[in-house]
Amino acid sequence: MNERVTPASDELSPYRVFTRDEWAALRADTPLTLGVEDLLKLQSLHDPISLEEVVAIYLPLSRLLSLYVAATQGLFKATQRFLLAEDGKVPYVIGIAGSVSAGKSTTARVLRALLSRWPNTPKVDLVTTDGFLYPNAVLQREGLMEKKGFPESYDGLALTRFLSQVKAGERKVRAPVYSHLIYDVMPEEFVTVDRPDILIVEGLNVLQPSRARDGRTVPFVSDFFDFSVYLDADEDLLEKWYVSRFMTLRQTAFRDPRSFFKKYAELTDEEAEEVARSIWRRTNLPNLRDNVLPTRPRASLVLTKGASHRIEKVALRKL
């Protein structure tokens, strides 16, 4: 079981913890701008989300972020005036972290949809760090295929360069694209980020701290975030959701001849479940325990899921 965010004394905790109902009450008059059809397009496989979940959890978060973004933009403009600098545009960057099967992709897409529907219709882009994984050929050469998703399997220099350029307000910054079908980076395919108002960055290890190298501090992804969200759940639930997703993919995407995992399509139910649990315990669980979970205390907001995928508790970092 994961230890929870709240320590023995709430007074000493860096977080203010809300029940689901307490958090939902903070929605105020924030309008619901998504419908059922929108959610069906946004949710990931085996990560169900309802309109009630959007109203209770994501509308209050959208309201909070609108306040944070406005405050940050105001501070930026004040600083520009102080420095007598030319007016520029710096995006507000939101990181979304958590384990495999925690629901990061659905959260990122729902949040993007809500933020882009604010009255002033800001430009909101979404990038996943999967595109910055080293290609399989490199991972195989370096003996890292079994550690795909671990911090060392990413091209950290390329990722930090990308975020540095975006945060500096550069135009048309490119990020590589990853295919879950072929389980590899797509050569010569990119997504272009062109000075958005808000950029959402989703990935397993996006909250990793800076690392020292040769006596120098090397910036990492989290250094560029203005706000961050961690999707939390107990280990047994995460394993259950991972296995369930694997079993469904075996009947769908794995049957595509191009799929990296096509060898699993014809397994029996028992064999497929054993393979899924083996992958989880050999790769995803060690990565969760050693790399992902230790970054949870660095998040601005922790959303804790229960057995039905519903957010049951919200912890917001105190300012």
From TrEMBL:
<keyword id="KW-0808">Transferase</keyword>
<feature type="domain" description="Phosphoribulokinase/uridine kinase">
    <location>
        <begin position="93"/>
        <end position="250"/>
    </location>
</feature>
<dbReference type="GO" id="GO:0015937">
    <property type="term" value="P:coenzyme A biosynthetic process"/>
</dbReference>
<protein>
    <recommendedName>
        <fullName>Pantothenate kinase</fullName>
        <ecNumber>2.7.1.33</ecNumber>
    </recommendedName>
</protein>
<keyword id="KW-0963">Cytoplasm</keyword>
<dbReference type="InterPro" id="IPR004566">
    <property type="entry name" value="PanK"/>
</dbReference>
<keyword id="KW-0067">ATP-binding</keyword>
<keyword id="KW-0418">Kinase</keyword>
<comment type="similarity">
    <text>Belongs to the prokaryotic pantothenate kinase family.</text>
</comment>
<dbReference type="GO" id="GO:0005737">
    <property type="term" value="C:cytoplasm"/>
</dbReference>
<dbReference type="GO" id="GO:0005524">
    <property type="term" value="F:ATP binding"/>
</dbReference>
<comment type="pathway">
    <text>Cofactor biosynthesis; coenzyme A biosynthesis; CoA from (R)-pantothenate: step 1/5.</text>
</comment>
<dbReference type="Pfam" id="PF00485">
    <property type="entry name" value="PRK"/>
</dbReference>
<dbReference type="InterPro" id="IPR006083">
    <property type="entry name" value="PRK/URK"/>
</dbReference>
<dbReference type="GO" id="GO:0004594">
    <property type="term" value="F:pantothenate kinase activity"/>
</dbReference>
<keyword id="KW-0547">Nucleotide-binding</keyword>
<keyword id="KW-0173">Coenzyme A biosynthesis</keyword>
<dbReference type="InterPro" id="IPR027417">
    <property type="entry name" value="P-loop_NTPase"/>
</dbReference>
